Amino acid sequence: MAKASRACVVLLRLLAAAATLSAAVVMATSHESTTVFGLTLDAKFQYTPSFKFFVIANAIGCGYSLLVLLVPPTSSLSRFVVVLDVIIAMLLTAAISAAGAISEVGKKGNSHSGWLPICGQIPKFCDHVMGAMICAFCGVVIYLVILLHSIHTVIGPLLP
Amino acid sequence: MAKASRACVVLLRLLAAAATLSAAVVMATSHESTTVFGLTLDAKFQYTPSFKFFVIANAIGCGYSLLVLLVPPTSSLSRFVVVLDVIIAMLLTAAISAAGAISEVGKKGNSHSGWLPICGQIPKFCDHVMGAMICAFCGVVIYLVILLHSIHTVIGPLLP
After folding, report:
1. Would B121 be classed as within a structural domain?
2. Cα dihedral across residues A137, A139, A142, A147: positive or negative
3. Which residues does chain B have within 8 Å of residue A58's beta carbon, measured at their own beta carbons?
4. Which residues form the signal peptide (chains A, B) (predicted)?
5. Chain A contacts of B41, Cβ < 8 Å?
6. DSSP states of B52-113
7. Cys-Cys crosslink for B143: which of A119, B72, B89, B118, Cβ 3.0 to 4.6 Å?
């Protein structure tokens, strides 16, 4: 039982690493150039602090997911792992949320602030960002499952 | 010992409720009108989806913090409270992050997207948003302390 549970957690962590790595790579490779009224528009993730934060957070999430596999489940460090899991889950949530807020402005604009939507001009870039956010969302969901599993095994069955 | 620990958690939850309530109220009462080149600019939190999300998330966080005080610490529901604490902490993180991403654009703009900074025109509104974000950040930190406390009491001392 303990062995199956451990294998399950390892699988989940590998999935989380894959999801966050994909999110970081898809966002980092998003790039599109277009010409509007003779002006060249260049869209890169580096131009938006929220997207930079997204890439860094997902890279940290991926690195952590792999590193934590090295911690033996019986060591005293495993207590810190639960704490770190919570913090990484919050970091990934923050990254998706910040990128989502900017994407929303990019897609719909904000007439009250005079910010025009730009996804019509750079649809490929917007699709890339959307894809990266879906990957990162999968990562957060997996982290939530890992946390539920930790709480379940530590505190006792969630369903009486 | 158990009584002191319980009193500590109740105090932390009341503080979290106060912090999230302040955040929601400060954001909800932010409003500024200004005239630029003869045009009236009206800044309200309702005009930005991220700020609406911020108010709703903090209202949920405040309501939850108060409701959860009714759950007796020995009931079987207390297992769910840890799970809900994690989810509320993630919700508040997402709210701050989304509001922060939009504030950043409001403050510095994004020349690559053609979005101009607007905080120069509506400084009072921006200060309100900043204040709300600081309150919400306090709320998240308190939730993190509550979670650390739960993990500490349930799994065992974090510091061996």
Report:
1. yes
2. negative
3. none
4. 1-23
5. 112
6. HHHHHHHHHHHHHHHHGGGS-TTSTTHHHHHHHHHHHHHHHHHHHHHHHHHHHHHHH-BTTT
7. B89
Identify the pLDDT of residue A158: 58
Convert the pLDDT of each residue in B2-38 to its tens digit. Answer: 788 888 889 999 999 999 999 999 999 988 888 777 7
Structural domain span for residue A71: 2-155
* N residues, chain B: 160
Helices A78-108 and A123-155: angle between axes, nearest 10 degrees? 150
CB contact under 8 A, B101 and A97: yes
Question: Does A160 fall in a domain?
Answer: no
Assess if residue B51 is contained within a domain.
Answer: yes
What is the rounded end-to-end Cα distance, in angstroms, of chain A?
19
Q: What is the DSSP string of A22-70?
A: HHHHHHHT-EEEEEETTEEEEEEGGGSHHHHHHHHHHHHHHHHHHHGGG
Question: Which H or E element spans position B42?
Answer: strand B39-44
As for how many domains chain A has, the answer is 1
Residue of A54, A92, A103, A105 for testing the chain B interface, max B β-carbons within 10 Å: A105
Chain A residue numbers with beta carbons less than 8 Å from the beta carbon of B85 are none
Nearest to A42 among B76, B102, B112 (CB): B112
DSSP secondary structure code for residue B48 in this structure: S
Spell out, as residue ranges, where chain B has pLDDT lower than 70.
Answer: 1, 155-160
Contacts of A104 in chain B (CB under 8 A): 49-50
To the nearest whole Å, the CA of B66 is away from the closest chain A CA by 22
Contact check, Cβ <8 Å, A112/B43: yes
C-alpha distance from A83 to closest chain B C-alpha (Å):
7
**B62 belongs to a structural domain:** yes
Cα–Cα distance for residue pair A14/A28, rounded to 1 Å: 21
**What is the reported pLDDT for B156?**
62
Q: Which residues are within 8 A (CB) of B72 and not within 5 positions of it... i.e. 6 or more apart? A: B78
